[in-house]
Each structure stands twice: as C-alpha cells, then as structure tokens.
Design goal:
Blueprint lengths: L1 H12 L6 H12 L8 H18 L39 E4 L4 E4 H13 L18 E3 L1 H26 L6 H17 L4 H6 L2 H11 L1 H19 L3 H13 L1
Antiparallel strand pairs: 1-2, 1-3
Helix pairs in contact: 2-3, 5-6, 5-8, 6-9, 8-9
Amino acid sequence: MQSGIVMDLARALGFDPGDRAEFCNQVKLFKGDPFRSHSVSERRVLVSLERILSNWSGEPVTVTPNWDFEIAEDAAAPVFPFKSFLCPLTKEVMRDPVVVLESSQAYERAAIEYWFERCVQDGREPTCPVTGTVLKSLELKPNVGLAGAIEEWVGRVVDYQIKSAVQYLSEEPLSVDHVERALDHVYKVSEEHPTRRYIIRNAGAVLLIVTVLSNNSKTIGSRLRSKALTTLLSMAKDEESRVSFSDLINYF
C-alpha cells in the first residue's frame, strides 16, 4: 500500500520514485509548509503521509529472508541476492517472477496482480508501479530466465545452509548456539523449499538431529529439544523422510 502511495506522489510531484535524495527534500518542504491545514482530520492525513514519506526517504533496506551467511567467517558463503531478484513491490526475493509486457518490468506474480486489483477497486487506471505507465493490457509473461537465475541462487543458499547445519551438529563438544542455528537452517529449508528436503536427508542432517536428541538431551535443554522435534516433524511431511524415520527408529 505504501509503495503505491509513494509511486503516485512521485508522479504527481514530477520526479523519479527511486530518487531518495529528492524525497528527502520533499519531506523537508512538506514539514515546513506554512499553509498546511489546521483541520484535525486533515492533519491526521498529513501526519500519515509525512510518516510514509519519512520512512521511504530513508536508506533502503533489503527485506529478504535471514539467510545467515556468516560471510565474515566463511568466504564460501553465497552472495546476497542481486537487486533484480527482488520484487519492487514486496522487496523480497521473487518466487514466481513475471514481466508486465507493456513496460518490461518484472514483479512477483501475486504482488502485481494484487496491485492491478487495487487499481481497479480504487477506480484508477492500472499502471506499472515502477514506471508509472498507464497500461492498456494487464498481460503478464513468466520471466523464465530470471526464475532460473533465482532458482540457481536459492540452490546455492540451501546447499550452504545444510552444509553448515551438518557441521554444527557434528561438533564435539556441541555448542548450544550452533545447534540452534543448525535447527533453524534445516527447518527453514524444509518449510520454504520442500522439494529440496532430499538434500537434508542425503546430507545426514536428520540422523544427526536424532543423535543429538538421543545423546545430548539434557545438554541442549527443553527449548532446543522442542525445536528439534518441530524440525523433525516438518521433515516428516515428506513421504521419503517418513520412510527414513522408520529406519532410524529401528536403528536406535
């Protein structure tokens, strides 16, 4: 919603929505305007707009999953996502990138479809949020090339996280902080990338989690025991994982 407001304000004021320096200048002018209304209701609207503009004019923050790369410690960690991987509306890595044919701008499918829906509901002409172009057609085309690049990057991230998790769970003596980080990695991959659960199984992470539970239950404490069980439960949503769990039960 704030993205749409900012885009509209930028177009109305005649400058690029990405020009944050100009936004800062506009905020200053806005705050110092001597002709602002004294009406309580209008003041509330002005305060809301001022807050939105102030937030938007600050330094951009990349909102993306907490991948926990530990780049300072591990040079093999994957790079953070390229700007082109982020949807201009959600500011998150896209899962289903599409292109607006008339503007050639890429967005997350669900986000741009919601934008179009809001334009129609608000009685406005549908536009491309980034370029401000009024669109005659709302046709979207899957961005196969970008989707492939994102998929490759996600694969590198998953491989790194599972490798790190196995390393943490294999340490002697165990570090409670590292066990928690390992469980977070495995759970995140299992929930957000279920088709990649086989990587977790093949890396032996499930066996390591069960071993930690069996041999270090008191050491890791009740909170991590609960987290470990939750992680195993997430993995159990996969049929092949359930089969491997049966083998583990017989083993122990």
